[in-house]
Amino acid sequence: xKLLGKVAFLLLLGGIWxxxxxxxxxxxxxxxxxxxxQGGDVDQSPSMGGLTSGAVGSTRSTGGxxxxxxxxxxxxxxxxxxxxxxxxxxxxxxxxxxxxxxxxGFYLKEFRGSRRWLLFLEGGWCCHSKDTCDSRYQNIPRLMxxxxxxxxxxxxxxxxxxxxxxxxWHNANIVFIPYCSSDVWSGTGVxxxxxxxxxxxxxxxxxxxxxxxxxxxxxxxxxxxxxxxLIPKGIKQAKVVMLxxxxxxxxxVLLNIERVASQLEQLGAEAQVRGLVDSGWxxxxxxxxxxxxxxxxxxxxxxxxKIGLRLWNGVVPERCRKLYKRGEEWQCxxxxxxxxxxxxxxxxxxxxxxxxxxxxxxxxxGGHSLSEEQWQYIQNLGRELKISLRDVTGVFAPSCLSHTxxxxxxxxxxxxxxxxxxRALHCWDRSLEATRNNKTPAKGCPFHLVDTCQWxxxxxxxxxxxxxxxxQELTLIQMLVAMGLDLQKLGLDPQEDAVSLARMVTNGG
Length: 509
Fold this sequence. Notes:
By secondary structure, this protein is α/β, with parallel strands linked by helices. The protein contains 13 helices and 16 strands. The chain is about 35% helix and about 10% strand. Helix 4 crosses helix 5.
């Protein structure tokens, strides 16, 4: 018996050692994969001078799903079960490419039996010259190349397949289209000989109206090809197709929604195409600066677009283009100038004090000092954005300092007048369905929601302000003091204004 006991004990030890060894190997493989995909996370892209924040959440730590998660997902697919991951598909037409000539693509999470499709355009601003594109390629290659994209992504916010996180769109077919064209999704341009990576040290005299960067800019063509590749997946049978995007992706929605609607109509689809623009409704810059724009960060949005349009061979919606003379087409990139020309339904999500709009004016909340003039600009910005959104049918505009929202996992928590964004979108959806079926839209379900309070952060559900130096959360008053503003000189009384802010919070903005 003692001998049998020793044998059993040795066998048990051997089993534990083998299991630990397998786990260590799996961990090693997983960490190698993580290293190979660094910089490939969708939510680590820079904001407008760089990027939109928070597009796909669960890939932050590894650049994709874990090996165990991928194996589990593969097993679930083999068993015919639904999985949460979106899978990478490269375009069948490999002539439509990212900036560096690698084939573009999309991530797809199918929901069998659903006739609703949600297409999402990633953001990431743009580059508009050889120097700015070379810098972008060096620092953020995943926004110009598909070579490092992971095989799967898991969506968050409106891209989530979990009902508790995404109550009204979790059961749609979800398509995430990575941004790798650097042209605000407008480009149709092709470099004559696209290289696998940017060439350096070859400065020649060229026609300034030709593509001298040796990159391709095909953002609008990528969207067209994604639609084509989704035909076998059932998009022709769709009832609703929602084209959505954040930051530059939101502007891409404005530029491409009519084209997508036309393409689907030509394919014989009866789907209603709708647009969801998140943090892509920008206003023109107030600063005077050099129009040459040696760096993207020193360039106003309108100057970057003016220069970029020639490089990208960019296109704008036809009805808007006819409003402006040749060379003025850049104005169609601004929602408040384009909106009235659109025939497709549009819902705009816009923070009234958008951090990227402020960055264009060299204002960084929680960063360096703030001048009285800059504080005045911040207050004026909220008023101007409200005016620009006045005639938009579907709006969700909280009085907050932030940028992008629809792909945040906590997007349910933000409210305007007691209504959450998913609820507002659902009300808009119901109204469109009622109108489409010649019925009267339901009352008491609002979807034009703009905060009435005037201060930044006067909405109690705003994302917290964070001091960049200490990473501590601050109230607006604390941040203004920390940034060197003399509140009394501005006619602000910290105690009185704290009371008035508290009153606004109680009233819900």
